Each structure stands twice: as structure tokens, then as C-alpha cells.
Amino acid sequence: QVQLVESGGGPVQAGTSLRLRCAASGLPFWPYTMGWFRQAPGKEREFVGAIGGGGGTSDYADSVKGRFTIFRDNAKNTVTLQMNSLKPEDTAVYYCAAPKSILTSAQHMNIFTPLYWGRGTQVTVSS
User: Fold this and answer.
1) Residues near 103 by Cβ (< 8 Å), separated by ≥ 6?
2) From the CB of residue 62, how many other CB atoms can be counted at a distance below 10 Å?
3) What is the largest CA-CA distance in the chain?
């Protein structure tokens, strides 16, 4: 059974940084692309970014490029979302996700990809 458990969310001030972590179990971690999505109140869930199994490839939504970075530790089965220069519009529940297919690349991971989901962690950015 695949389990994805997020941690690290909370309230922060605009302009500051926050790091989210996802611990994965129940799947052979390193070959799988891992990703992050978010859902703001009243909005649809959206792609934030993804990282390939080896960590050498990644893709990000335009809204977070240059501010957010994803990295992974395949020895610990964790993936981290480093968020810098946070804005109030980054307020959302952030979800860790893993594709059900090992063939899914970081560039092809999106909301329509069959995914395993974590329960999410709330990030609230105040101005």
C-alpha cells in the first residue's frame, strides 16, 4: 500500500521561506517521479512541480519557477519542496503525489496523471 505523508506546513509571512517534506512508503521510490500539487480555497488542484526518479530532471509551474525547488533523497524515500519568497497567493493545501506508472516523467506529470496522493499540508501566507 502506497503511503505519502506530508509535513512542514504552517502559517508564514510573505517573503519568507518554508520547506515541505513528503515521506513515501509502499513503492520502489527511486525510479518514480515525485511531484507536488496544491489546492487553494475555491480553486481546482494544480500542478506545482515534479522531479524525476534520479533527481536530474524537474519541471515547475510558471507561477513558482525561480522560487520553489524540489529535491529528493532516495536513500530516505523523501521528497522536499523548498519554497522561497512566498506570496499570499501561494496559500493552499499542498499535496505530495506519485504517479501510478513508473514511466511518468517529471515533464509529463499533471493533474490528469493517475496518481497516488498524500493527505496534504496547509500553507498559509499572510501579507
Assistant:
1) none
2) 6
3) 40
